[in-house]
Amino acid sequence: MSAKKAQSILDAIEQFEQTGESVGLELRLSLSEVILQSLREKGWTQATLARRSGAKESFISRILHSNANCTLDTAGKLLHALEVRARFQAISMPDCQNEAATDLVFTYRELEESYGKAITAHQETTNCYLRAQEAAIG
């Protein structure tokens, strides 16, 4: 990957992170992470969660892959089935964005050295969000 292409990708990510859609993506990724962690802890499958929540298994899969929006009521039903309570917490964004950009530049250098790996913007955003959330809690 050329430096020009990597910079173009970084610029696109930076522009995306300035939109409301990026915040929505962070919320979907956060919900997905909570559900996945709870499924692992309980030893449940997606089918088990679907049965207990009344949702279709295909919908659960889309939620887990952050490919579907859902209402807060639907998220509440899924979390209730998992016996998880959740709430929103405000997190400062400027520090998070700088850290994500630094991590992303380092990752692209690694990619240039070892072809065959791929990265997406939402992975970096998720990592940044989780680090910021841990810092806010701890």
What CATH calls the topology is 434 Repressor (Amino-terminal Domain)
What is the radius of gyration computed over CA atoms, rounded to a whole number of angstroms?
17 Å
Average per-residue pLDDT, rounded, comes to 76
Q: Helices and strands, in N-to-C order?
A: HHHHHHH
Query: Quick one: CATH superfamily?
Result: lambda repressor-like DNA-binding domains
Euclidean distance between termini CA atoms:
38 Å
Biggest beta sheet attributes: none
CATH architecture: Orthogonal Bundle
Structural domain count: 1
The percent of residues in helical segments reads: over 70%
Sheet-strand content, in percent, reads under 5%
Q: What spatial form do the alpha-carbon principal axes imply?
A: globular
Low-confidence stretches: 101-119
Q: Briefly note the structural class of the backbone.
A: mainly alpha
